[in-house]
Amino acid sequence: MRKDRLIELLIKEEESVLSGPEKEELTQWIQQSDQNAAEVTQIKKSWKNATQLTADFSIDMEKDYAKVLERIHAKKKQGIVRLILPLAATFLLLVGLWFVYSVYFQNPVKYYSGSTQSLQLPDGSILDLKENSEFAYQASNKNRGGRLTGSGYFDIKSDQERPFIISTKIGNIIVTGTQFSIDEGSTDQVIVRVEEGTVMVTNQQDQTVTLQAGEEGVMTEETVRKHALDQPAGFWRLTPIQYQETPFGEIQTQIENLYHIQLQLSDPDIAACLVDFTLSYPKLDDLFAILETVLNVSIEKTEETKYIVRGSGCS
Q1: How far is C-alpha 107 from the geometric centre of its chain's CA atoms?
Q2: Rounded to the nearest 5°, which phi and psi values hold at 169?
Q3: Measured between alpha carbons, how far is residue 221 from residues 101, 191, 273 in Å?
Q4: Domain membership flag for residue 3
Q5: pLDDT digits (tens, 9 = 90+) for 273-284
């Protein structure tokens, strides 16, 4: 079992949100060998020791990460972090603090700014930055990542030994290898959209959610919540697709793949309707409103990511 998958399952177990199949997966892996069982015991022991820490650690973000903050014009933040936390949140917080506090002094920072072309990071990961966005990258033999201001789409090269940690104005995003986007809105929130793999998101209140492909998380200083994907990950970097006299069945497949949804046609003939349409990746409700007009149909939600297209189709 991959290390990130093991940690994900153990976190869910601690938070009592482990599903039946996941519990069986974890149990079977532990029972495969004494080495596996010992590894789980060691991880849980580390978490337990972490929760027993009572000292206050003062992390002056402006001092410890001064050069990064100067480059990206981030807001000064200073505070005391008390390490008396739930087990899962403690683990994530310690990883994030280790990255910010120690890696900066040992490794140079590489700065990237918004570009129309994909950028390759030193670890082989690919980054697309939205205009007026910036990313400061660092890496060591223990971890990788950096500080993001604005919006970025990440295709992280898998490395089970070195998690990739992205710091934002509100919290951290932690992965080992996956595809996702991060968007800092004009309001005090950060939206994480996952295209592939698993992403853990934790805010300054140490609230954590795990996102899978087809999900997005909305993080504020007070809450972290998740729901089904509302727009494709990194939609701002995608070129609009123009369809002219195109059978809707072809457009349907593209929409399903991008939005991670399923569209059921009440009448199979709808798939043959010829459509003039530009897919510019709007929010799902707006997209459905356009399709309802173009096709002369109605679209209704039946399950979390399943919809039915009703009508005879073709305007």
Answers
A1: 25
A2: -65, -15
A3: 21, 12, 47
A4: yes
A5: 999 999 999 999
Three-state DSSP state, 270: helix
Are residues 195 and 64 part of one domain? yes
Instruction: Tell me the residue range of the domain where 28 lies.
Output: 1-52
In a domain, 233, yes or no: no
**Is 193 a domain residue?**
yes
Give the residue-averaged pLDDT of 226-252: 95
> Residue 79: is it exposed, middle or buried by C-beta count within 10 angstroms (0-12/13-18/19+)?
exposed
Residues 64 and 188 in one domain: yes
pLDDT of residue 71 exceeding 80, the answer is no
Statement to judge: residues 48 and 60 lie in one domain: no
Q: Report how far residue 92's alpha carbon sits from residue 95's, in angstroms, rounded to the nearest whole number.
A: 5
Q: Indicate the pTM of the whole model.
A: 0.66
- Write b or e for each residue in 197-236: b if 16 or more Cβ atoms lie within 10 A of its Cβ, otherwise e: bbbbbbbbebbbbbbebbbbbbbbeeebebeebbbbbbbe
Identify the band that residue 165 occupies on the pLDDT scale cut at 50, 70 and 90.
very high
Mean per-residue pLDDT over the chain, rounded: 80
Q: Are the beta carbons of 260 and 231 closer than 8 angstroms?
A: no
State mean pLDDT over 168-196: 91
Q: Do 23 and 127 lie in a common domain?
A: no
For residue 44, give the amino acid letter: K
Residue 125 lies in a domain: yes
CB 130 within 8 A of CB 151: yes
Q: What's the confidence (pLDDT) of residue 204?
A: 86
- Nearest Cα to Cα of residue 115 among 100, 124, 127, 97: 127
Examine the domain organization and report whether 20 and 61 are in the same domain. Answer: no
